[in-house]
Recover the amino acids of this structure.
């Protein structure tokens, strides 16, 4: 096995100095963990269909600004050790330390740092970026690094297979080991002889399609990473292979089979018991087309299919007819995609070693056969400044640190095969990328499908890759260039100049993209000059991956290069349940566009109800494009996706994981045009998905059978969607004359008074607190606190949210009280909100928070139950309540019979505030719950979009938790548990 310079002993680098690491993000003398407020959470995950608890770990530690979703997914996916054992990780600190300390130790051992102080700074900076969700490594890093398992850090692999039975059987074995390790693989089958060629024995060859059946069955059996997701794979065939038509038709024919079996009564839903009879469903298929073929399509000429052994033309076909068949198959079942061979290899930095023939399953990693790539993605929204401009210098500092860490990982990484290990150590391919582009552009007031949006994306991508290669050249001067650089030096430098020239062609439109472009231009100049002197440490630097699971880890609104999926999402709540949330970048974007607070409230309210901005009150039509999404009323046009990829592709070492979404009404001609324009615009690969083109979709009736046609599917949605989303973000002021209650109290010897005022329906609307002498600091603080809470209540923040936040706060004065219902209190705040809960919340709401009256505690001692025999609510509620219209009162109002506040039903909505997004820099999102907190059914953005629009979202069900997934690049990701159908 060849050893790289970096894997040699440090003494081999005489005269070379290590890196000086400047402190940018962390604070000198303070550990990054000490700058964060931490809290304990219970992570319980259930299958919403069966109610079965599939995971439970209590008391895990996370920063208070991490969402419940992020902490749930990280705990279930990435914590190592058996649950319930001392070896189990119990918090984010352990997870991050396990990874970062391994990277730092390897960096020291291999001579990356100038001094021990630089190594410590590297550790602190990397830790700070990770815990503050500025970036994340790909999933295999979190699975494996620092554990007793093999230290596999790569998510993407490319295999090779030759025209021999030994090689074909070895392909099956190697794929299996890669899937088992939690990753995906791709390969090109074009070396295998076609079914139209002869074997040396005189018989006819089976052809590559026949061998695909065995590999597909293997992939369908093996779950990646033990249980995290199904295997992901890519199968590529060259367009001049004699079996190309059979390859194109494989999935197409299987879709017809699904229809026939479904109509015969078999369960052909995704995950159905009969779907396993369908073949070729575990791989993405792509045709590798050449410029020669595409020109023949344009000109309408013949194209030759060539024998694999001799290269002679054994059959000619009409190029347009074959191109039409490819497009028809994609229209029918979304496969195959296209990969543009000449474009890919024109940007290849290692042509002297071999051509690029294949990609990983999601099409972003394209490199040599038997190679791998480890990925990391930055959260772009973290680099948006308060003035809504992009912080390019800070972004560049993060990139250079992350790319350094990624290169260090190759020094200690393990690989599934010796051939992959050799190639990766010799060429050191990396795949830095980003997520949250869609949210960033929206927050900046830029349309995804606009010249301004594309210019911003292009300059950011250029800066990222330019900074990565500049740092790669610096590393080459310290620990040496990659082993294969010498033979490919001229080609590598040529590609760097191509990137530089592409950067020069970018035309900026705003101050933000102009500043980013200026810095990118400086970086590319350094790349070219340093590369001439030092060479480069890495053959590849950047890709744009789907960022499915790690996107949730970073609390990203959008994945990879994708636009926002929908303007209304779901959010998990502490203790279970979920709520709907209007994308919190929308208010920021509207403010950037110059709208005042009143108009912003009205527009957000409209979006909450309708799921789109069309006809939103006060919103200018020229601003609609800023809020376009992947799905829904204002869905982006297909060419909008293509143009965004074309804007960023010249600045990527690899390619882009992205699917071009088309409506169900799209035609074959439109797909042909997308494939043709993608080639002309210089993309390396294109995949399309036409809505509802798959038969085996998750919409099903009570028996689990798929609907037979689109009309039935629409009917299924209408039957399922019965809830009415109610949203009222406007202030509900109290009447001039209102009910009020005055409570005197003593806590730990400190006396005070509380006046609470209610609306006509009995719902709490204001509080006044009197403590200390008038004019004192304490009195002023309590007045300000009272006003803040009162305004929140009037804008719809539920009282129980305040109660959950402020009870159990511990500070002086504390101790005994003079209230028989609250005998002991940990602080004045603890007492006040316990008293308010007893006065204004129903028994059910209070019992969820563990708050009971003296009468209820006595009943528990006598009967073992807190619950009242007939009425709900405390004794004080029954005495003081005023009638307000009986059971027909509005949600959250008082019930005439009991006087208690009526709990919202499952079909009603109420305002909610997120408990996990309360960090110092977090903006308060405007949210609406669609269910009571104890509702059993989980929600996803895909389901919410169905509910609001009344149309089906064409996504599979999650194999782990049963909820509906949503697109992420060319894969799908589950918002409930973080599982993906892809490889990153």
């Amino acid at each position: 096995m060849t050893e790289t310079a970096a894997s040699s002993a440090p003494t081999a680098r005489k005269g070379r100095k290590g890196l000086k690491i400047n402190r940018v993000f962390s604070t000198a003398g303070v550990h990054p963990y000490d700058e964060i407020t931490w809290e304990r959470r219970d992570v319980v995950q259930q299958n919403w269909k069966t109610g079965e608890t599939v995971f439970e770990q209590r008391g895990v530690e996370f920063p208070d600004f991490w969402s419940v979703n992020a902490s749930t997914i990280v705990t279930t996916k990435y914590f190592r050790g058996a649950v319930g054992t001392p070896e189990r990780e119990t918090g984010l600190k352990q997870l991050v330390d396990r990874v970062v300390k391994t990277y730092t130790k390897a960096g020291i051992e291999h001579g990356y740092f100038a001094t021990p102080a630089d190594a410590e700074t590297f550790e602190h900076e990397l830790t700070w970026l990770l815990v503050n969700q500025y970036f994340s490594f790909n999933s295999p890093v979190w699975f494996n690094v620092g554990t007793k398992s093999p230290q596999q850090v790569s998510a993407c692999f490319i295999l090779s297979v030759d025209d021999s039975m030994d090689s074909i059987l070895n392909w099956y074995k190697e794929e299996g080991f890669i899937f088992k390790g939690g990753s995906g693989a791709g390969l090109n089958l074009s070396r295998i002889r076609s079914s139209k060629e002869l074997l040396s024995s005189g018989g006819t060859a089976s052809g590559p399609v026949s061998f695909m059946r065995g590999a597909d069955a293997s992939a369908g059996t093996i779950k990646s990473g033990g249980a995290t997701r199904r295997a992901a794979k890519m199968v590529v065939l060259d367009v001049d292979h004699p079996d190309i038509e059979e390859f194109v038709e494989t999935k197409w024919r299987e879709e017809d089979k699904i229809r026939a079996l479904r109509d015969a009564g078999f369960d052909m839903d995704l995950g159905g018991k009969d779907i396993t009879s369908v073949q070729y469903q575990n791989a993405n298929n792509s045709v590798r087309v050449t410029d020669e073929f595409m020109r023949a399509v344009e000109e309408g000429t013949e194209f030759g299919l060539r024998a694999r052994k001799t290269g002679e033309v054994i059959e000619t076909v009409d190029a347009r007819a074959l191109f039409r068949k490819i497009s028809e198959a994609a229209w029918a079942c979304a496969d195959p995609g296209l990969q543009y061979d000449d474009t890919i290899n024109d940007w290849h930095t290692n042509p002297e070693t071999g051509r690029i023939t294949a990609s990983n399953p999601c099409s972003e990693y394209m490199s040599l056969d038997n190679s791998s790539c480890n990925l990391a993605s930055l959260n772009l929204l973290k680099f948006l400044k308060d003035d809504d401009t992009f912080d390019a210098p800070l972004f560049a500092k993060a990139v250079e640190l992350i790319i350094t860490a990624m290169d260090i990982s190759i020094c200690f990484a393990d690989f599934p095969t010796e051939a992959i290990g050799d190639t990766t150590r010799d060429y050191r391919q990396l795949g830095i990328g980003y997520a949250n582009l869609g949210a960033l552009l929206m927050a900046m007031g830029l349309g995804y499908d606009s010249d301004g949006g594309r210019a911003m994306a292009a300059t950011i991508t250029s800066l990222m890759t330019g900074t990565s290669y500049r740092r790669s050249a610096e590393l080459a001067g310290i620990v040496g260039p990659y082993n294969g650089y010498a033979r490919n030096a001229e080609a590598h430098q040529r590609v760097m100049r191509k990137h530089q020239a592409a950067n020069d062609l970018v035309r900026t439109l705003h101050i933000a993209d102009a500043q980013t472009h200026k810095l990118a231009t400086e970086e590319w100049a350094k790349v070219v000059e340093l590369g001439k002197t030092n060479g480069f440490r890495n053959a590849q630097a950047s890709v744009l991956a789907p960022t499915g699971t790690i996107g949730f880890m970073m609390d990203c609104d959008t994945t990879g290069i994708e636009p926002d999926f929908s303007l209304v999402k779901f959010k998990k709540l502490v203790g279970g349940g979920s709520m709907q949330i209007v994308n919190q970048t929308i208010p920021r974007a509207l403010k950037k566009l110059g709208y005042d607070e009143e108009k912003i409230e009205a527009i957000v309210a409209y979006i909450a109800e309708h799921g789109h901005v069309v006809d939103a009150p006060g919103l200018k039509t020229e601003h609609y494009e800023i809020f376009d999404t992947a799905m829904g009323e204002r869905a982006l046009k297909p060419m909008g996706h293509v143009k965004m990829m074309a804007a960023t592709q010249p600045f990527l070492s690899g390619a882009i994981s992205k699917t071009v979404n088309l409506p169900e009404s799209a035609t074959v001609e439109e797909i042909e045009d997308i494939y043709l324009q993608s080639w002309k615009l210089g993309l390396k690969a294109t995949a399309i998905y036409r809505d509802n083109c798959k038969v085996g979709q998750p919409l099903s009736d009570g028996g689990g059978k798929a609907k037979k046609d689109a009309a039935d599917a629409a009917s299924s949605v209408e039957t399922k969607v019965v809830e009415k989303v109610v949203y009222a973000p406007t202030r509900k002021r109290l009447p001039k004359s209102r009910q009020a209650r005055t409570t005197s109290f003593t806590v730990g010897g400190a006396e005070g008074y509380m006046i609470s005022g209610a609306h006509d329906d009995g719902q709490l609307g204001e509080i006044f607190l009197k403590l200390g002498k008038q004019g004192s600091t304490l009195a002023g603080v309590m007045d300000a606190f009272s006003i803040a809470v009162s305004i929140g209540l009037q804008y719809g923040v539920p009282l129980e949210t305040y109660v959950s936040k402020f009870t159990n706060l511990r500070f002086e004065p504390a101790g005994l009280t003079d209230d028989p219902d609250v005998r002991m209190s940990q602080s004045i705040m603890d007492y006040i909100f316990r008293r308010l809960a007893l006065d204004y919340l129903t028994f059910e709401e209070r019992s969820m928070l563990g708050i009971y009256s003296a009468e209820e505690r006595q009943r528990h001692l006598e009967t073992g139950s807190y619950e009242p025999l007939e009425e709900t609510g405390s004794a004080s509620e029954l005495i003081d309540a005023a009638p307000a219209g009986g059971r027909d009162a509005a949600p959250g109002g008082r019930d005439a019979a009991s006087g208690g506040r009526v709990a919202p039903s499952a079909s009603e909505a109420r305002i909610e505030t997120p408990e996990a997004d309360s960090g110092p820099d977090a903006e308060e999102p405007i949210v609406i719950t669609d269910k009571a907190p104890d509702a059993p059914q989980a929600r996803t953005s895909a389901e919410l979009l169905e509910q609001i629009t009344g149309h089906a979202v064409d996504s599979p069900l999650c194999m782990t938790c049963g909820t509906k997934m949503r697109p992420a690049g060319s894969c799908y990701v589950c918002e409930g548990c973080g599982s993906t159908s892809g490889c990153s």
Notes: The CA atoms of residues 415 and 421 lie 5 Å apart. The first strand starts at residue 38 and ends at 46. Residues 739-908 form one domain. The two ends are 27 Å apart (CA to CA).
